[in-house]
C-alpha cells in the first residue's frame, strides 16, 4: 500500500487558518475536522496551510509522526506541484520515514515566522505529531529555502525583535534547495541575512541544528554574494569546530559530519532533475534525524574467509532498539522490525542472496540471533550487509567482507582472510614499548585479539576498536595469524612472500624470523619516513624458515599521516613459478608503462651533488597508438603530496581512460604522469622540470600534438595546485586545467590570488575544470568557491562543483571521465583545410648509406592558424602570436615492419617559408640496426599541421 494517497485526488488535504478552534487528538478528529466549514472569503483574508497525512493515518491510531513544513517557492503560496509526489516516492522507498507534510502559505507583508509558529501549534494540537523541535523540519526551494532558514535560526526576544538562537525552538532540521537568499526578487530578504545569522550563532552552536543546503552551480541564487556558496563556505570553515566528542572520526578528516550538515553545489541548472535529487537527499537526511539513535547493533560472519566447497555463511547479530525513541513514533507496547542479511556484489551492487527474520518485542529492547546466507563470492570477495527494517525505513548495521580463499597447493599458501590485529602505539609516542619487539609479541596473548581482514582497502572508522573510531589513526600496529604448511609443500630453496601494499611501512616475521621490511630498517625500530605506501611488497625467504604443520606470520606496520592500513593484496606464499602464473598480471605494457628521463632541475631541487638524475614517469597511450601515424593531445597528470605517479596506477586510471575513450566521451589522448618529490608542489625547479625537460622529452619520443591548444594539466591535491600553477605560468604550453580538490591556497603561492589578478582575456584562454568534496580534510572547497566566483565575474566558462566526498580517490575517480571529457570538448577545433597550408617533395637513394632529401613549403594561409595568447599583464593588451610547431615524421618500412622513425619537432613557423632537410643514415648504428641496407625500403614523410597529418610523399628505394 502506498504511504501517501494521490495528491489532490485521494490525499487528505485540509486548509486551515491559524486561529481556528483546536480539537482533541482522537480517532474522531478527522471526521470532525472535515466538517469544518471554511469560506473562500476567510481563506483570502487569512494565511492558510494544507496538511497532507500519510494514507494509513486513520488506521494507525497508536502511531505519531514527525512533521515537515514546506515553505512556498515564491514566498507566498506557490508550491512546486511535483514536491509531494517526489516526497511520496522517497517515503515509499526504504530511505525515508512516514511524516506529516504541511504546506505553508502566506500573505505579502505578514510575519511569516509568527504565522509558521501558529501553524505548528495548530498541527501539534490537532494531529498525532511528535511535538518536539527534533521531530520537525523546515524545507523550501528558492525563496522558501531562505524562509526555512530564517524561521529555524531566529526567534523573538523579550523586546519583540527577531534574533539568532543557539538551540532549536521550532525546527531542529532545516533544508534549502537552490535557495534564493539575497536577490531582489526575494520579497522577504529584509527579514535577515542568513550568512550573518549563522556567523552570529557560531561554529559551536550551529551543530545543535541539522542544516542541509544545496544549489545548482549555474543558478545565480547559488553564486550570489552571501548566498548558498558563501553559506556553504562558512560552514566548511566551521569544520575545525565539528563536535569531535560526538564524532571523533572527524578529528583528522576535517569536515562537519553529515550527521550535522550537508552542503553541495552541484553542477548544472536548477531544473526538475536537480529538484528530484535534492528531495531524495533531504528527505532521507530528515528521516535519519527523526530516527537518530533508534537502532544500533553488531554482527559477525563465519566463516569470513571461505573456500569454494563451503556452502553456508552464518550471520550472528545483536540488535538494540532505543525504546524511548521508538515510543515517540509508536505508542503500542510491541516493537516490530525485520532483520535482513544480504550478500552483495561489491562492484555491481547486485544482491546475490538474502535472508531475514521478523521480530515483535514486548518486554525487551534488544535481540540476539542468527541468519544464514549462501556462499556466493564474485571474484575475490563479496559483501555481507546487515540492516533493520523498521518504521518503513532501512537502518544499516554494517558490512563485512566475505573473502574467497584458494585451497593450499604444493606451491601456494593463500594468506587472505582473518588476521588478529592490534593498533598498539600512537605515532607521536617515540618511546620504545614492549610490543615493538617480536619477542614480546610471541609471548603475548595475541590469539585473544579481535580479527580483521586486510587487503580490502584503507582503514575505516569501524575497522577495529584499537583505531579509536578514527580512519586516519596514525601509529604502529600488528597483524598476526597462524597458517599450515602441508607435508608435501615445495622444497624449492627460495620462496616468495607477497603482502600486496601497506600504507606506509612494514616489517614481517615468519616463525619469529625477520624475512623482510620496507621503511622500518631496524627490527622493532622506527619508521624512517621514506613514504613507501605505494610499493608492492614482495619478499624472498628461505624455505627452511617454514615448519611442516603450524606456522605463525606477523606483520608490524606504521602509518604516519592520513589514511593508513594494509589496503591491497594479494597475500600469500608462492614458489617463483606459481607467483609468475597467478600474480603477475598480463597488462598491456605497450600502452601503460614506466619510463625515465634525465633531469638537471630535479637534481637541483633534491640538493644532489650530481648534475642530473633520472626521474620516473608513467605514460598512458590510447589503443591504436602503436598501429597508426596519428598525433594525440596530451594531458600531464600530476601526483599529490607524499605520493608518486604510482598512485594513479593503483587507482587504475588507465582503465578509466580506456572506458571513457571506448564510450566516446574522451578523445584519444596521451596521459603523462611524472614523479617529483613528496612535497614539491610542482613549483620552482619542479615546474621547470616539467616545462623544460619532460615536455620536450615527451614531444620528441611520442607522437604528440605539439600545440598548447591540445595540451593540458591535471592533478589531485598538491597536483591540482601544480596543474593550475604550471598552466597559468606557461600559456605557450598549456590551455586547459583539471584540478581535483586542488591545494590552491597552500604555501606562499595562492592560485586564488593569481586568478584574481590576471586579466579576463588571459583567464578565458584556459579551460577550467575544478571540483572538491564537502568533507575535504583541508577545506579546499572554500578556495574552489572563490575561484568559481572570480571566473563568473569575469564571464569565463568553466566547470565547477562541490559534492559529497572527502580528500581521497573515492571522490575523484567517479569524475575522472567527466573531467577528461570536458578537456576533450575544449580542445580546439581545427579545419581540415589546414593541410592545404603545407606541401613538399621527397626523394632518396641508397648506396653505402641511405640518403633522404625533403623540402617543405608553407604558404600565407598559415596566419589563420597561429595561436594567439592574451597578455597576462593587466596593463598591456598586446597579445602574443605564437609560432606554429610543425612536427615531421620520417618513417622507413621494410618487409611490412617499421624499422626506423625520425620525429623532428624543431621547426617553428609564423609566416610563409620553405626549408630543406637532408638525412644521411649510416649502416650498423644503434638507430639503423633494424634496416637491411641491401633490401628495398619504403620511405614515408608526414608533416603535421597542429592536429592534421599530411602525407608529403611515399617512395620505395632500392640499393643502387
Rg value: 33 Å
- Describe the biggest sheet? 8 strands, mixed
Low-confidence stretches: 1-47, 243-254
- The number of helical elements comes to 24
How many runs of DSSP E, i.e. beta strands?
Answer: 48
User: Which percent range fits the helix content?
Assistant: 10-25%
CATH architecture of the largest domain: 3-Layer(aba) Sandwich
Q: Class of the largest domain in CATH? A: Alpha Beta
* Alpha carbon gap, first and last residue: 92 Å
What does this structure look like?
The protein is of the alpha+beta class and 960 residues long. The chain has five domains: 13-290, Alpha/Beta hydrolase fold, catalytic domain (Rossmann fold), CATH 3.40.50.1820; 295-404, Immunoglobulins (Immunoglobulin-like, Sandwich); 412-582, Galactose-binding domain-like (Jelly Rolls); 592-826, 3-Layer(aba) Sandwich (Rossmann fold); 832-957, Immunoglobulins (Immunoglobulin-like). Helices cover 22% and strands 32% of the residues. It has 24 helices and 48 strands. The chain has an eight-stranded mixed β-sheet with strand order 1-2-4-3-5-8-9-10, with helices on both faces. α5 runs parallel beside α6 (194-201) and α17 (653-662) crosses α24. The protein is globular. Mean pLDDT is 90; it is low at 1-47 and 243-254.
Amino acid at each position: 500500500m502506498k504511504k501517501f494517497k494521490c495528491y489532490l485526488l485521494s490525499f487528505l488535504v485540509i486548509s486551515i487558518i491559524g486561529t481556528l478552534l483546536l480539537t482533541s487528538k482522537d480517532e474522531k478528529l478527522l471526521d470532525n475536522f472535515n466538517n469544518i466549514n471554511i469560506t473562500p472569503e476567510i481563506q483570502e483574508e487569512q494565511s492558510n496551510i494544507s496538511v497532507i497525512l500519510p494514507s494509513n493515518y486513520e488506521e494507525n491510531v497508536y502511531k505519531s509522526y514527525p512533521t515537515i513544513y514546506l515553505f512556498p517557492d515564491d514566498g507566498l503560496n506557490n508550491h512546486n506541484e511535483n514536491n509531494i509526489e517526489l516526497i511520496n516516492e522517497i517515503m515509499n522507498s526504504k530511505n525515508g520515514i512516514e511524516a506529516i507534510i504541511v504546506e505553508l502559505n502566506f500573505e505579502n507583508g505578514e510575519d511569516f515566522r509568527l504565522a509558521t509558529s501558529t501553524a505548528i501549534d495548530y498541527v501539534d494540537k490537532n494531529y498525532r505529531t511528535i511535538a518536539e523541535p527534533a521531530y520537525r523540519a523546515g524545507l523550501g526551494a528558492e525563496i522558501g529555502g531562505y524562509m526555512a532558514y530564517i524561521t529555524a535560526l531566529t526567534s523573538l526576544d523579550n523586546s519583540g525583535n527577531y534574533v539568532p538562537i543557539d538551540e532549536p525552538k521550532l525546527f531542529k532540521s532545516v533544508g534549502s534547495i537552490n535557495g534564493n537568499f539575497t536577490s531582489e526578487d526575494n520579497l522577504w530578504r529584509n527579514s535577515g541575512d542568513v550568512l550573518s545569522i549563522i556567523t552570529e550563532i557560531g561554529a559551536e552552536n550551529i551543530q545543535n541544528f541539522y542544516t542541509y543546503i544545496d544549489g545548482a552551480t549555474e543558478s545565480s541564487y547559488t553564486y550570489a554574494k552571501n548566498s548558498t556558496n558563501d553559506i556553504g563556505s562558512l560552514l566548511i570553515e566551521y569544520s575545525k569546530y565539528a563536535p569531535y566528542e560526538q564524532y571523533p572520526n572527524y578529528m583528522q578528516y576535517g569536515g562537519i559530519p553529515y550527521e550535522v550538515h550537508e552542503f553541495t553545489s552541484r553542477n548544472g541548472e536548477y531544473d526538475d532533475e536537480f529538484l528530484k535529487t535534492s528531495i531524495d537527499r533531504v528527505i532521507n537526511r530528515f528521516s535519519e534525524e527523526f530516527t537518530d539513535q533508534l537502532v544500533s547493533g553488531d554482527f559477525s560472519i563465519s566463516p569470513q574467509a571461505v573456500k569454494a566447497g563451503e556452502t553456508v555463511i552464518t550471520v550472528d547479530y545483536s540488535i538494540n532498539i532505543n525504546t524511548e525513541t521508538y515510543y515517540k513514533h509508536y505508542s503500542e507496547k510491541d516493537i516490530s522490525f525485520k532483520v535482513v542479511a544480504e550478500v552483495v556484489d561489491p562492484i555491481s551492487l547486485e544482491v546475490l542472496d538474502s535472508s531475514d527474520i521478523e521480530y515483535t518485542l514486548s518486554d525487551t529492547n534488544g535481540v540476539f540471533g542468527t541468519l544464514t546466507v549462501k556462499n556466493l563470492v564474485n571474484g575475490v570477495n563479496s559483501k555481507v550487509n546487515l540492516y533493520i527494517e523498521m518504521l518503513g525505513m532501512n537502518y544499516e548495521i554494517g558490512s563485512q567482507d566475505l573473502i574467497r580463499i584458494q585451497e593450499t597447493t604444493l606451491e601456494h599458501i593463500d594468506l587472505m582472510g582473518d588476521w588478529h590485529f592490534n593498533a598498539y602505539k600512537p605515532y607521536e609516542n617515540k618511546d620504545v614499548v614492549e610490543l615493538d619487539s617480536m619477542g614480546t609479541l610471541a609471548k603475548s596473548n595475541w590469539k585473544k585479539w579481535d580479527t580483521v581482514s586486510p587487503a580490502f582497502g584503507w582503514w575505516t572508522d569501524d575497522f577495529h576498536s584499537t583505531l579509536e573510531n578514527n580512519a586516519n589513526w596514525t601509529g604502529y600496529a600488528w597483524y598476526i595469524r597462524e597458517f599450515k604448511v602441508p607435508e608435501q609443500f615445495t622444497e624449492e630453496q627460495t620462496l616468495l612472500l607477497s603482502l600486496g601494499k601497506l600504507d606506509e611501512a612494514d616489517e614481517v616475521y615468519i616463525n619469529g624470523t625477520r624475512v623482510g621490511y620496507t621503511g622500518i630498517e631496524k627490527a622493532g625500530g622506527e619508521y624512517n619516513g621514506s613514504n613507501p605506501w605505494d610499493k608492492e611488497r614482495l619478499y624472498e625467504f628461505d624455505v627452511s624458515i617454514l615448519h611442516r604443520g603450524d606456522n605463525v606470520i606477523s606483520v608490524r606496520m606504521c602509518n604516519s599521516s592520513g589514511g593508513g592500513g594494509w589496503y591491497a593484496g594479494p597475500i600469500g606464499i608462492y614458489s617463483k613459478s606459481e607467483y609468475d602464473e597467478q600474480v603477475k598480471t598480463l597488462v598491456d605494457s605497450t600502452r601503460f608503462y614506466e619510463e625515465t628521463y634525465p633531469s638537471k632541475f630535479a637534481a637541483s631541487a633534491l640538493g644532489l651533488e650530481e648534475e642530473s638524475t633520472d626521474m620516473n614517469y608513467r605514460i598512458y597511450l590510447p589503443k591504436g597508438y602503436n598501429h597508426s601515424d596519428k598525433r594525440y593531445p596530451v594531458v600531464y597528470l600530476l601526483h599529490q603530496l607524499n605520493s608518486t605517479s604510482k598512485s594513479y596506477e593503483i587507482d587504475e586510471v588507465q582503465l578509466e581512460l580506456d572506458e571513457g575513450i571506448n564510450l566516446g566521451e574522451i578523445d584519444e589522448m596521451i596521459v603523462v604522469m611524472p614523479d617529483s618529490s613528496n612535497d614539491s608542489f610542482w613549483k620552482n625547479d619542479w615546474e621547470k622540470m616539467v616545462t623544460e625537460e619532460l615536455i620536450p622529452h615527451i614531444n620528441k619520443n611520442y607522437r604528440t600534438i605539439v600545440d598548447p591548444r591540445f595540451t593540458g594539466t591535471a592533478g589531485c591535491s598538491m597536483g591540482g595546485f601544480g596543474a593550475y600553477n604550471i598552466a597559468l605560468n606557461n600559456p605557450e604550453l598549456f590551455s586547459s586545467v583539471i584540478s581535483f580538490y586542488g591545494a590552491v591556497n597552500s604555501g606562499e603561492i595562492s592560485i586564488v590570488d593569481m586568478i584574481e589578478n590576471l586579466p579576463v582575456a588571459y583567464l578565458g584562454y584556459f579551460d577550467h575544470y575544478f571540483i572538491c568534496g564537502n568533507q575535504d580534510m583541508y577545506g579546499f572547497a572554500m578556495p574552489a568557491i572563490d575561484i568559481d566566483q572570480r571566473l563568473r565575474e569575469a564571464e569565463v566558462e568553466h566547470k565547477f562543483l562541490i559534492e559529497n566526498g572527502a580528500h581521497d580517490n573515492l571522490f575523484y575517480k567517479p569524475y575522472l571521465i567527466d573531467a577528461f571529457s570536458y578537456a576533450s570538448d575544449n580542445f580546439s577545433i581545427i579545419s581540415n583545410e589546414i593541410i592545404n597550408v603545407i606541401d613538399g617533395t621527397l626523394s632518396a637513394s641508397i648506396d653505402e648509406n641511405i640518403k633522404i632529401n625533403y623540402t617543405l613549403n608553407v604558404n600565407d594561409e598559415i596566419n589563420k592558424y597561429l595561436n594567439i595568447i592574451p597578455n597576462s599583464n593587466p596593463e598591456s593588451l598586446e597579445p602574443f602570436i605564437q609560432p606554429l610547431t610543425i612536427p615531421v615524421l620520417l618513417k622507413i618500412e621494410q618487409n611490412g615492419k617499421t624499422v626506423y622513425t625520425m620525429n623532428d619537432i624543431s621547426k617553428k613557423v609564423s609566416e610563409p617559408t620553405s626549408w630543406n632537410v637532408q638525412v644521411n643514415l649510416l649502416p650498423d648504428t644503434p638507430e639503423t640496426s633494424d634496416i637491411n641496407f641491401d633490401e628495398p625500403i619504403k620511405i614515408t614523410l608526414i608533416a603535421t599541421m597542429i592536429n592534421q597529418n599530411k602525407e608529403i610523399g611515399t617512395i620505395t628505394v632500392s640499393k643502387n
